[in-house]
């Protein structure tokens, strides 16, 4: 089954004649455009374009699909317009709790999109290191990263499994070299930390994949770890979703599964309130879309 969102990438490349021009039109990354077109081709079992040095040219199969795709896009736009009219009636305050990295790095551009869809829903973002108790009303919705959410009467939505791996700066790689294996990490400067919500993930990964590594720089926030890595102070271990916001970071190894999953969680007593449903559905969809765009999921 193909992803309906991939149709927009197909149409943009068909109209523009290249993934670069399509990326500019969509405000996306060229690699993302190429990957989504390839995903659509794989899902349909069709070669939609002839890839040439001069650009992308529709194949016969692509030509056959083009008008159907345009009709699909037109119908989707009509549904979206009708849905947007309905969402303008949704209003209220939602207290959203998550970790500091998502609050400060990942969520802001997504909340901008969410606001355009739900202009009367006000989000109050809390990135306390302490898990807020949804049952006690300390927050309305939680964006959490765990194997299995625990708590009474919770309503959960699994979004994606965000893989993690090691990153450093171009400066650090040029000065110290790029490790080719996990064993070679032991000879490098390593940055640890991340605070209460991250350190368990970090320590578990070190123990399983790089037991000989001894971090020589520690930050109690994940944003601090990232800043240190970008400054060339060493190698660190962060999620691919987070790293996608920093093109100056060098990915050293393929992402490793970490046994943790990304969830949106609310409590059963408020799940049917329209503004809560808007966050659980609308913001959740935006997070999934972003994860697919970045290759994080």
From TrEMBL:
Annotated InterPro entries: LysR-type_TF_proteobact-type, LysR_HTH_N, LysR_subst-bd
A Pfam family matched in the record: LysR_substrate
Record's keyword terms, sorted: DNA-binding, Transcription, Transcription regulation
Designated name of the protein: LysR family transcriptional regulator
Ranges where the HTH lysR-type domain occurs: 2-59
Family membership: Belongs to the LysR transcriptional regulatory family.
PANTHER family registered for this protein in UniProt: HTH-TYPE TRANSCRIPTIONAL REGULATOR, TRANSCRIPTIONAL REGULATORY PROTEIN
């Amino acid at each position: 089954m193909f992803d309906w969102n991939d149709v927009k990438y197909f149409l943009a490349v068909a109209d523009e004649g290249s993934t670069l021009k399509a990326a500019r039109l969509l405000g996306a990354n060229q690699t993302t455009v190429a990957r989504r077109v390839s995903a659509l081709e794989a899902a349909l079992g069709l070669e939609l374009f002839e890839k040439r040095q001069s650009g992308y040219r529709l194949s016969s199969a692509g030509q056959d699909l083009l008008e159907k795709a345009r009709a699909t896009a037109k119908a989707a736009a009509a549904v979206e317009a009708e849905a947007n009219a309905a969402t303008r009636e949704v209003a209220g305050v939602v207290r959203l709790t998550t970790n500091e990295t998502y609050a400060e790095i990942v969520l802001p551009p997504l909340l901008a999109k969410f606001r355009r869809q739900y202009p009367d829903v006000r989000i109050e973002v809390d990135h306390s290191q302490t898990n807020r108790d949804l049952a006690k009303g300390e927050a309305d919705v939680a964006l959490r990263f765990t194997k299995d959410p625990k708590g009474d009467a919770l309503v959960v939505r699994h979004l994606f499994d965000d893989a993690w791996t090691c990153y450093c700066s171009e400066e650090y790689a040029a000065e110290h070299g790029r490790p080719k294996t996990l064993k070679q990490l032991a000879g490098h400067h390593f940055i640890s930390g991340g605070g209460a919500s991250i350190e368990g993930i970090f320590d578990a990964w070190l123990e399983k994949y790089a037991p000989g590594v001894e971090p020589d720089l520690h930050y109690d926030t994940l944003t601090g770890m990232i800043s240190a890595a970008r400054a060339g102070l060493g190698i660190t271990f962060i999620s691919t979703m987070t790293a996608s916001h920093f093109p100056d970071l060098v990915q050293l190894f393929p992402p490793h599964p970490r046994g943790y999953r990304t969830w949106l969680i609310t409590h059963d007593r408020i799940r049917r309130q329209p503004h809560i449903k808007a966050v659980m559905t609308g913001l959740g969809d935006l997070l999934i879309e972003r994860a697919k765009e970045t290759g994080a999921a």
